[in-house]
Amino acid sequence: MRQRSLIAITAALAAGALTLTACGSRDEGGDSSGDSASTTLTIGVDAPLSGENSTTGLGIQYGAQIAVDDANKKNTVPGVKFKIKALDDKAQPATGQQNATAFVGDKSVVGAVGPLNSGVAQSMLQVFASADMAQISPANTNPELTMGKDWQTAPKRPYKTYFRTATTDALQGGFAADYAYNGLKKKNVFVVDDKQTYGAGLAKLFNEAFTKAGGKVAGTDHVNTGDKDFGALVSKIKSSKADLVYYGGQYDESALITKQLKDAGVKVPLFGGDGMFATTYIETAGAAASEGDLATAIGVPVDTLPGAKAFVDTYKAKGYKGDYGAYGAYAYDATTAIINAVKAAKEAKEDISGDELRSKVVEEVQKTDFEGISGKLAFDEFGDTTNKQLTVYQVEKGKWKAVKTGTYDAG
């Protein structure tokens, strides 16, 4: 069925001239129950669904899909069925901006979930703001996205339409540094980043917190995304006598770095952020090379959350690709926040639609307050989650194992 203008559909329904039957989502894994409904609304999902970072990107897509399927089965918003429109940004800012434009141009889209990468998010913010459409990322951690460039001294929210269910690098970098210095007793670290918004920002914050704690930085260096040969970097790290390597970036490069370090006889752990926390990291590096490596991730282990059990079971039962462990639950809750906002908007004004609905969804998302599968979800005045929990994971016998969970006071 061709997508009609939501406004036209609403008008026809009001006149009694049109009855719609919701078509099941044609997206992979979608619910196709065929239950009758007056309107079908779309929630956009943007993430890297192929190539670099796709393991975690697919976890976002299917986390959102399960949330939509659950809402449709429960008839969360009477008279409305939801579907997912997932677009692949390939971890490229320009592509993400194009995807944001596509979502805004689709009149059935009421909000968007994603992206994974903070650099991609920067390219999308203005597009969504201009359309007054809510965007909730389950994974972005760069503090500037919610508090502006002067976030450390004069925080100011740039866009009221942007929210996130992930806590920020202002906490993640310090949390990692504290564990490295006080938990691992490491005193001499070599810091590397991939020059991207997320990686460079995280490495900088780790560096600052580690030296503030009393540690020393043996050296710093940068790599390019897509690099495969890290021989020169390995030589620098080996000469530095560092007892730890901290990496700001994604699992694609860090898995190769740790493998080449161990192959060269540099038996020190590599520590990174949530961009490294994926099963693919261990698979690519190998269990032997990655043994003892560490990564921080937002929240607490999803498998330990009672509310997430049904989500995990569903994800596994459907055989969805990707890794739900990093952001799947946070994508589920982000999607649910948009659905709940639509429900609140419809309850306030039954015939609300189009741009008015999008605007009202933004207002209602800001009021979010519910117990999600990742924990309690609410947003502060900047659009940041009030859930500040973080976890340090370490590779043990080929698997990520949680070794510390808590919060960090950046002050």
Protein topology:
Layout: H1 6-14, E1 39-47, H2 54-74, E2 80-88, H3 93-105, E3 109-113, H4 118-130, E4 134-137, H5 144-147, E5 162-164, H6 169-183, E6 188-193, H7 197-213, E7 216-222, H8 231-240, E8 244-248, H9 251-263, E9 270-272, H10 279-285, H11 287-290, E10 294-298, H12 309-317, H13 324-348, H14 354-366, E11 369-372, E12 375-378, E13 390-396, E14 399-406
Parallel strand pairs: 1-2, 1-3, 3-4, 4-5, 6-7, 6-8, 8-9, 9-10
Antiparallel strand pairs: 10-13, 11-12, 13-14
Give a concise summary.
The protein is an alpha/beta fold and 411 residues long.
Describe the overall structure:
It is a single chain. The protein is an alpha/beta fold and 411 residues long. Helices cover 42% and strands 19% of the residues. The chain has 14 helices and 14 strands. The protein has helices at residues 6-14, 54-74, 93-105, 118-130, 144-147, 169-183, 197-213, 231-240, 251-263, 279-285, 287-290, 309-317, 324-348, 354-366, and strands at 39-47, 80-88, 109-113, 134-137, 162-164, 188-193, 216-222, 244-248, 270-272, 294-298, 369-372, 375-378, 390-396, 399-406. The strands form three sheets. A seven-stranded mixed sheet has the order 7-6-8-9-10-13-14, sandwiched between helices. The protein has a five-stranded parallel sheet with strand order 2-1-3-4-5, sandwiched between helices. The chain is globular, with a radius of gyration of 22 Å. The model is unreliable at 1-37 (pLDDT under 50).
Number of helices: 14
Note the beta-strand portion.
Answer: 15-25%
Secondary-structure-derived class: alpha/beta
Strand order of the largest sheet: 7-6-8-9-10-13-14
